[in-house]
Amino acid sequence: MSASNSIGLERLEALLAGDTPRTSDEARRAAVLAQLRDATLNAPEALRSRVLATAPARGTVFARRPSRRLVFAVIPATVALAVTAAIVHGLTTGSGSPVTQVHSAAVSNGVAPSAKRFAIPPSVAGGAVGAGGQAPSPSAPLDSAQSTLAPTGGTSRLQQTDASLQVRVPDIEHLSTATRAATRIATSLGGYAQSVDYQTPRGRNGTAYIELRVPAQNVQRALERLAGLGTLVSQEVSVKDLEHALQVQSAEIAQLRRRVAALHQALTDPSLPDAQRVLLQIQLAESKRALAQRLNARKGTVTAGTTARISLVLSTQQSAVTPVPHRGRMSRMLHSALGFLGLEGMVALYALIVISPFAVLGGLAFAIARMRRRRDEDRLLAA
Fold it and tell me: pTM of the full predicted structure?
């Protein structure tokens, strides 16, 4: 029988808790427990060697951290490489001749396949405008302006012509004269001015927006005379063929007319039942309404093909050509190098923003793994 059974489990727990022994046997056991509490247990050297031999080596689990010298060497090298690349870019791109910016006529994209667009460059000079809106003075002949105007078709097919011109005049007085002359030009060619918006704000450049309608056969002459009202800044001409649309509308109109005639003929039959007569009358009314719509649409097509629309902008603004400030060769090189260096900085900042979350996650994973490794080593050494 064991000692714990001879004295009872309750007495053994009382002795472990520090109770006073009652018998000599309990006193002997209490002395043994005191010796066990005061004793220091040391693992044998053979056991410690075996545990250390089975522990993973530090060099095989985690890579060595880069030294501070390497970090302090990489950062200046990277900065020096970026500056060198910027200098090389400045030397290769900044040694060219200076460029002058010229505002030219804009050509619209996305034109229909049947449309043709033309654009001309600026810098066409015209003279002062006379009282009757005639050609400019001999000092600035109209022929130079006419030679740069875009063609406007000239075929026998039905075409829609839309044109827009921007003309610059010297001052407000010439702006008023040119506005009146533009309306007279349209009237003399058989057209009219649909709208005129004349603006002369105090202390600012004056502008006149004029919408003109002229016969299609006179659009070329109108453009030539309007371009002579001042300095032609820009021009855009759009020619769209309407012949196919006119043929389709005419075919639809002929078909609807035949349908209306057939319905009229059917309604003259006296033996026609009342229900069928009402149905034919409804169909006749719908056919007449569709015929009126097609006739109106063809009329609009013919009007668009026989009357050209011209949008004219007269302005006193003197900034058709904006020269770039002249820079020397060294200034251009420095400007190009600084611009390239700024681009590199933007790329580096963008890369840092993208990589920073992954760097934070990697650092947390490394710290957690290191804590777990230290805890496992302490546990093994304590055993």
Answer: 0.42
